[in-house]
Amino acid sequence: MRFAMAMDTKKCVGCGDCVVACQTENNVPLGFARDWIVESVQGIYPETVKMHFKSERCHHCDNTPCVRTCPTGASHVIEGGIVKVTASECIGCGACIEACPYEARYVHPDGYVDKCTFCDHRVFAGENPACVDVCPTDCLIFGDLDDANSPVSKVLKEKDWYVLAPEAGTKPQLYFLK
Amino acid sequence: MNEQIFVSGKNIPEIIPNLELWGGPIALYLFFGGLAAGIIFFANYFYLRGRSNTMVMTIKVAPIIAPIIIAIGLILLVADLNHKLYFWQLFLHIRMNSPMSWGAWTLTVIMIPAIVWPLYYLPESIEYIKQRAPKSKLIGLFSWINNFVRQFKIILWIFKVFEKNQKLIAYLTLYLSVILGVYTGILLSAFNARPLWNTAILGPLFLTSGISTGAALLIWLSNDHKEIKKFSRLDLFLIAVELFFIIHMFMGMKAGSIAQVEAGLLFLGGPYTAVFWVTVVGLGLIFPAILEIMELGGLKISVWIPAFLVLMGGLAFRFIMVSAGQFSSYHII
After folding, report:
1. Does residue A41 contact residue B7 with C-beta atoms inside 8 Å?
2. pLDDT, tens digit, 9 for 90 and up, residues B276-292
3. Pick the CATH number of A3-177 from 3.40.190.10, 3.30.70.20, 2.60.40.10, 3.40.30.10
4. Which residue is closest to A55 within chain B, CA to CA?
5. How far apart are the CA of B192 and the nearest CA of chain A, in angstroms?
6. Are A16 and B9 in contact (CB < 8 Å)?
7. Which CATH architecture has domain B24-327?
């Protein structure tokens, strides 16, 4: 099992529903967010200006610098390649935050480090992550890469995609469709 | 134009627009770690060279400072944690891939010889201070500690074991002190996501800088002419090595990937240029080196001036590296 997410940059309208859904589902403290939206603008007005949105979160990398540098093992990988933090083992040193090229982690007001869990409590119950279910344009696609019939495997076979900062060597599992 | 803007969430000042998670306490901790490594290194090295009777300051007196500054460093480190009450989790796990984990263990292990060593020599240290500064308040304090500690049979037994195996312990501690010095750099260089830190030269650079600050402190504290001269020469050599490493580091960055080129530019035209080259390289390395050369040439210069400059340069170097490293990233946004 290898969970992954694809994100269609052409369909996303930047509404922010995924952000709010995550905050509600996971009780994310006020002012913080486990996922976020980036608006990307290319070109110079008034000539061709291109714009697209990206919904980003933890990339649940195959090669996890955050888990490697964690001094206590609080950051760990569970079944399906999901990267999680055990709050009771986390000392809040910030090594994982320094190690993440995607800035996907933050310090929870209670002191431990918090991040996207791919909504593992929903996923292992057979549901989609909250952000995926709530998306009004269906631009988020979630599934198991080891299953050739999963929605994410299919869409990655059909469409062109890219990942962020592949040069960081983390083998990220958040795919952006062109 | 290619612009990326946040439109939702993630307005976390520690992370956006650039990381500011680690600051003063971490820089100070790295400085104290390096300084302690330097003091312990010289004490053990010159003990093994058989200089116990000629270099009393280096081998017997100065090591008193090491456990104190290591302890201060550890307090700073724990104070900087966000989940402070869980710090003991560090000592339930050994994770060889995490520099912070083996650094915490190195600090814990080196604390044992760092405490036993100066305690063992305390009577001689008190004698030394009495000769040099008979009115010092430290004499009373150290005498009290000495009398207190030597009441316990277990401590006298530890001293006996220490005396019997001192050579072996000195070799091990020398090795540990090098690990401690290198660790202060590797702690930062382990982060691929911060291209400025992610260079293998950072470990040797921090080790050299730490040992150099140790030498500077010994120059300052000692009032034996031979000892001062020896450490002035050593410090000159260390400064030269440090300058070589710094040039090497920027050459590597200039020749690296775009992330590393940009990281190097922070110091070669970017926001950290002036502060780095003036404070660290100018006032912290080149100027004290010139003063030390003049002094070795026979000119009378108060020894504490170059020593103080080297120490401040080492401190500034750590503050700047910790801050600038968090400025450099892969620019996902």
Report:
1. no
2. 999 999 999 999 999 99
3. 3.30.70.20
4. B8
5. 6
6. yes
7. Up-down Bundle (1.20)
Single-letter amino acid, residue B187 = L
Q: Which of A73, A91, A101 sits opposite B86 (nearest CB)?
A: A91
Identify the band that residue B13 occupies on the pLDDT scale cut at 50, 70 and 90. Answer: confident
Q: Are A14 and A34 in contact (CB under 8 A)?
A: no
pLDDT digits (tens, 9 = 90+) for A60-92: 999 999 999 999 999 999 999 999 999 999 999
Contacts of A154 (CB under 8 A, 6+ apart): A148
d(CA B104, CA B179): 11
Contact B15, A97 (CB under 8 A): yes
Going by C-alpha positions, the residue among B84, B239, B263, B121 that lies closest to residue B189 is: B263
The pLDDT tens digits of the residues spanning A108-148 come to 999 999 999 999 999 999 999 999 999 999 999 999 999 99
**What is the token pair recorded at B325?**
């490293």
Phi/psi of residue A170, each to 5°?
A: -95, -5
Domain positions in chain A: 3-177
Q: Do you know the residue count of chain B? A: 333
d(CA B253, CA B325): 13
**pLDDT tens-digit series, residues B195-254:** 999 999 999 999 999 999 999 999 998 888 888 888 999 999 999 999 999 999 999 999
Listed in order, strand segments (DSSP E) in A43-139 are 50-56, 75-78, 82-85, 106-107, 113-114
DSSP B89-129: GGGG---TT-HHHHHHHHHHHHHHHHHHHHHHTHHHHHHHH
**Which pLDDT belongs to residue B66?**
95
Site from A51, A93, A102, A170 to mutate, B interface, most B CB atoms within 10 angstroms:
A93
pLDDT of res. B1: 66
